[in-house]
Write a structure and sequence with these properties.
Layout (H helix, E strand, L loop, with lengths): L1 H16 L2 E5 L4 E5 L4 E7 L5 E7 L3 E3 L4 E3 L2 E7 L6 H12 L3 E7 L6 E9 L2 E12 L2 E9 L4 H14 L1 E2 L12
Antiparallel strand pairs: 1-2, 2-12, 3-4, 4-7, 5-6, 7-11, 8-9, 9-10, 10-11
Length: 179
Amino acid sequence: MKTILLFQCLALFALRLGAEPLVDVNRGISADIPSGWTLYGKATAQDPNRFIYDYGMPKISSKLENQEIENAVAVMILDQPCDSISDLVAIQEKWTGNRLLSRENLKTEFSDRAKREIITEKGLQYTTRVDLLRRNRTGYIIVFTATAGTYEQNLGRYLDFLKSFKATGRPKEFSQPAP
């Protein structure tokens, strides 16, 4: 009950600031979604052990790529128990798989672990910031994906979003999947 009340208060506070609230009590998260971000989907991914919220940030001009680019933010919630941050790192690195070109660990005040990765997807190269959190046996992977020409331009906006992200863990046992 206290968890639900907390999320409702956070949602009301976000409304006052003009941001759209993301509140998912069943998965134990809340965040302020900045104005202009587009929710492209929320669904169980191809992997039945995770749930994803996919957002597009407003397009920005990239001098390097010589075009407008829409960066992405994905919030993934594991629908399986996560017993340690090491388990979460292993799961995320398995998902990255052979797309990884380089990885650098980052200092972070917003998550349990953060890293910057250069990946390839369909022949294109992207820079990502991956933030990993674990709360109450629930794993959260938040990924900011950008091009080389837009990463630094939008990193601050992503970090502002991450500052608002609150994770408490799923309130229900893992014997029952979240709706």
